[in-house]
Design a protein that fits this description.
Blueprint (H helix, E strand, L loop, with lengths): L5 H8 L16 E5 L2 E4 H13 L6 H23 L6 H19 L2 H8 L3 H25 L7 H9 L8 E2 L2 E9 L5 H19 L5 H8 L3 H4 L8 E2 L5 H8 L10 E3 L2 E11 L2 E9 L5 H19 L5 H8 L3 H4 L15 E2 L5 H7 L11 E4 L5 E12 L2 E2 L6 H25 L4 E3 L22
Amino acid sequence: MWKPSLHSLLLLLFPIAGAAQPAGIVIDRVIAVVGREAVFHSELSTRSEQARQNGAPMDRTGLCGQLEDILYEKLLIEQGRIDSVVVDQAQVDSELDRRIRYFAAQLGGESKLEEFYGKSVTEIKADFREQIEDQLMVQNMQQKVTADIRITPRDVQRFYNSIPQDSVPLINAEVEYAIILRIPKASEAEERRVRRKMEEFRENVLKGEKDMCTIAILYSEDKASAEECGELGMVPLGTMVPEFDAVAMSLKEGEVSQVFKTQYGYHFMQMVQRRGEHYNARHVLMRPQIGSAELASERFLLDSLSKVIADGKTTFGAAAMEFSNDEESKGANGVVIEPSSNSARWDMSALDQQAFFVLDKLTPGAISEPQLVVLQDGSKAYRILHLIARSAPHRANMKDDYRMIQQAAEGKMRAEAVDQWVKDHVEATHVRLNEDYVTCPFQHGWNRPELTRDR
């Protein structure tokens, strides 16, 4: 799929206001009005382009669907103002600051952002303040429309009973599992070797014998920045780990730091530029290497834990809380949570390949042999997996799939509440559509003859 450039992404999220246009070209036009809220052609074009980039077909039906979404949002804004719903200005300021920080970092600093827009940051914020206020108003009103929805077990059962038998969804095989992960530590001798090497590189830079660019390209294990002479680009505070940020904030432009350690290894950096809470630095990273002896030690520990658990002297959950190095799961007795559903149940097809092949061979209650895994940073570790439960492919039912059915029932109730709200309010609101869109196949009555007038 085509990936938009940074500039096209900026144009979608922060359109350039007042950009120069060739003489005789219509800059924009109103295509609809909802109450006192106008819908501009540029809004529909931007929304449609975003949908197209995400793979949605932009035929006549798709275009009309995007317009209906905008009409709904305009109705929310109109009604919010009638109901005197207040948008927190501190929240508006925070959202504006967040966007400015993000895009400034992507472009290489606030000065580059100002150059891109041809305006100061203050002017950019002023241009988009109303847009952010409207977005937050939409969020507040959407919450208000569905705030009173309460779903009971009887509602869930009624929803399930309403699904035709041949339409009950088929659920793939699912598993619940837990892990104990052990990440080996380098030996003290290896830690000393890497630190000495980094101190040597730092001295080379300070004495002018080598430059940061050469050292980063040849030796840094942060491959992404090494290709750029170790340069990170302008990043806001909070992007890097706290220790890295703290060192960066202590440096003046051009200054070289001491060698310091983070969870990723040993670093030293040279400050390139600081602008408020943003900075650009060159850095070199080297990781202490893990030897076969360290890996073998972690495998032996996991073997021993498996035997202790099998003998009933402890549980897998207790062992995970005490010994696992996986911070995300150890606090939950080692149970691994599926992030999109926030549930312990995993569709087998969503597992990583290594976990799939191990769990596929286990019976519920069993613990795997220690398994060598490669972590995201390229380092190696060992883990054992405990299969808690497995379900075969089946039609969704209230016993095994209650949570999923509950979520679907609640989603249906929310959709019905929104539909009713739109129906009630669109009838009492002035709506005017451009003739190009009067024939759109809307779900709601935006184009009813008594509402729609294009004068």
